[in-house]
User: What shape does this take?
Amino acid sequence: MATRPVPTPSELPEPPEVSDLDVVVDGTDDLPPGMPPDDPTGTPPDDPEGAELTLGEHLNEIRQRLTVAVLTLVLTTVITLVFASTILDYLLEPGRQALPEFRPIYTELLGFIGAYIKISLMLGLAGAMPVIVYQIYAFIHPGLTGAERKWIMPIVALATVAFACGGAFAFFIGWPPALTFLLNFGQEIADPQVRINNYIDMLTRFVIWTGIIFELPLFLMGLGAIGLVTSRKLLGMWRWAIIGSFLLAALVTPSIDPVTQTFVAVPTMGLFVLGVALVRLVENRTVIPVIESDLDDDDPEGQPA
Assistant: This one.
């Protein structure tokens, strides 16, 4: 019977390194301090960011933030009430430039007071808007992802600047020629007697809607970011964009003359071009892919390629 030779110590294989062994650990060494090993959330129990609020706590937070927003609105409105006469006189200056003897009237006892308070409320709301936006952001902040928190404030800032630019454009560029046409048309037959409420209502509507139109590039960029439109498709709609610009101008401008409408339509077309450029920047990083025809034309069964 043959015997197997016994290997010498120098011929024995070296033991494997510890790093080469497949060791399964329970991962408790990487847990934050104070967190029990069986907590699957990875959040310490005393972490306020990870704690879920009850319905009552949510309602209490809403009440507190609404209180701050309302008090800020009241404060800014009271401040603007002090300067409302000066502001109202400044808003009437384009009418005096269009017609030197322009002087608005009011036919109701509360006509002037109504215009006075309306201007104060609108300017007070504009002054309180940063605080109101911050209160909304602070309330929804815990539910946002990191990417959403990164983009929401720049988007709000850009939207605010775009709206302000639109309002300034309406008052300084679009409003004077509209008044010149409206106050001088038919003057040889009748004298214009403009109610101050009517003047303020037309001016505020024109300013607000023009500010909304100036949000068009951001709106298109948002559609491009979620993959609903592409820059190529938008460029293919340039004829409709021109028609839509003049239709918007006809709806927004208080005057029916083509000169004033052109003053609004041309910048609107420029905003459309800017929106196409912004879509071009974000369309390759869409969150939702653009819906294209995913059927193969050569497949008689109509199955996806």
User: Anything to note?
Assistant: The chain is about 60% helix and 0% strand.
